[in-house]
Amino acid sequence: MIIGIGIDAVELYRIEDIIKNNPKFISRVLTSHELEIFETLKIKRQTEFLGGRFACKEAFSKAYGTGIGKVGFQDIEVLSEESGRPIVYQSIFEGKVHVSITHTDKVAFAQIILEK
């Protein structure tokens, strides 16, 4: 049974600006495993990666019904399978988490469905 759906979008120019001017934000949003991946990427892909993970975590908090605050960025870890498919590897939710992340040149989008 679906118990929550969340969606979020983030403008990538804002993420690129954050990467350049507020590097503390990166480690606030990304878990240590996500940060390891982030650091191996070129700047364009870093922007997409951080934007996608940020949107995903915001979407998760909406689906969970709390918003960011009661659910923290570090409470959710989004990794990828070998195929590249994103998976919520770690979260405070006990059930199945479905995730989709996509982006254009200007915006990253994420959708989360929580199922029990």
Explain this structure.
Helices cover 40% and strands 31% of the residues. Helix 1 crosses helix 4. It is of the alpha+beta class. The relative contact order is 0.25. The model has no long low-confidence stretch (mean pLDDT 95). The strands form 2 sheets. Strands 1-5-4 form a 3-stranded antiparallel β-sheet. It has a two-stranded antiparallel ribbon with strand order 2-3. A hairpin with a 3-residue loop joins strand 4 and strand 5. It has a single domain, classed as 4'-phosphopantetheinyl transferase domain (Ribosomal Protein L22, Chain A, Alpha-Beta Complex).
Provide key terms for this protein.
4 helices; two-stranded antiparallel ribbon; Ribosomal Protein L22, Chain A; alpha+beta; 116 residues; globular
